[in-house]
Amino acid sequence: MTIKPTRIEAKKKLTYFIEEKLVNYSKLRNFKIDIDDKTTTSNLSPYITHGILSENEVVRESLKKHSYLTSEKFIQEILWRIYWRGWLELRPQVWKNYLKNLKKLKDEFKDNKKYIQVTEGNSNIECFNDWVKELKESNYLHNHARMWFASIWIFTFNLPWELGAAFFMKYLYDGDTASNTLSWRWVAGIQTKGKHYLAKEWNIKKFTNEKYKKIVINENALPIKENIEYSIINKELKNQKIEGNKKLLIFENNLFFENSEYNDKIFEKIIIVKNDNRKNSLCKKVINFKNDLINDQLNRLNKKSISCDIINIDDIKKIKEDFYIFYPYVGENLDFINLNNLTKVNFLYREIDLFAWQYCNKGFFNFKNYIPKIIQKFC
Ligand SMILES: Cc1cc2nc3c(=O)[nH]c(=O)nc-3n(C[C@H](O)[C@H](O)[C@H](O)COP(=O)(O)OP(=O)(O)OC[C@H]3O[C@@H](n4cnc5c(N)ncnc54)[C@H](O)[C@@H]3O)c2cc1C
Fold first, then answer.
1. 153, 146, 145, 152: which is closest to 208 by C-alpha?
2. 247-348 adopts what CATH topology?
């Protein structure tokens, strides 16, 4: 699958999906079919993760062509990202603990033979090896393959979920702190306590159109146990009035200033921030992909004669006056701001997030009830 890092390509892909694929999405989405024009899902996640397409825009465009009923399953999937982000905002300690454990585990497993075999695609499970290869070559995996992959990693290879999540983050073009960390926790059975996702041979065979013959995996494992209760933190998040002619900083997950609710405000300059120094390291192709998306945003702003620069994350410390930042969500970029005590920062939030996050205190089934209300207000 090819994913070209421009807004123009993102828009083309969205239009193609809405015109050709959306109508059969709910029926076919679980099938993993490895032929480019036969794909069953939208492949839009690398764009949505980086803000090149917003959830509002995707839902709005879908509803222009299809009824709510036809689009419902797709709209629910689109809203998962907002839900996961909101869930993590309320429990940021989950992210902190993940990073702490990851540091320890990376060291512990660096010479582990099984871990090396698995991550090099040399295990004794053919389908798993194919997905490792696919992930490294295309930097994408179908959702069902991600679920099987994570399940086999945790319950057949008995490897820690944190290392699996870091492996995905390293190679995925759509690597997203909340969606990735919480999906791995969900497969392990610690996100919804006691409920894990166990991949089954019949299921893999059916949804890959019998591509694989004999798949020997552990189909009887028990969920992973975690004895931590994460309580919800109370954060008063609200937007402030934009005042004065200040700089606006944007990170990699908000690379579409023109489409934001702040696009009519005047900023002294827009500064796009690159982060090449992460705890969860990224492969070269993912770094290049992000850089291309950043350059695409820069070019679009230049065409509109909006003053714009690119800086490295460390250079934020040099900004001495008050400035705005599009809120980067719980993750490595926010950690940098918090760790460095950057007091001149004023966060700007997306209104859809502020509204939807009030429904993220419970599970997605509860959140789902509010989706019509959310999209009526924002899409
Ligand atoms: C273990 C695991 C790890 C994952 N890691 C990531 C990740 O790092 N980044 C990421 O964007 N998604 C992640 N997902 C969710 C999901 O697999 C991808 O969003 C989806 O495969 C993207 O393909 P698509 O655009 O064709 O999806 P479609 O089926 O076309 O869905 C449309 C859009 O809805 C959103 N979406 C769909 N399913 C989910 C979901 N479960 N969670 C959040 N958003 C969703 C995405 O924005 C997607 O583009 C993960 C899932 C699992 C099981």
1. 145
2. Rossmann fold (3.40.50)
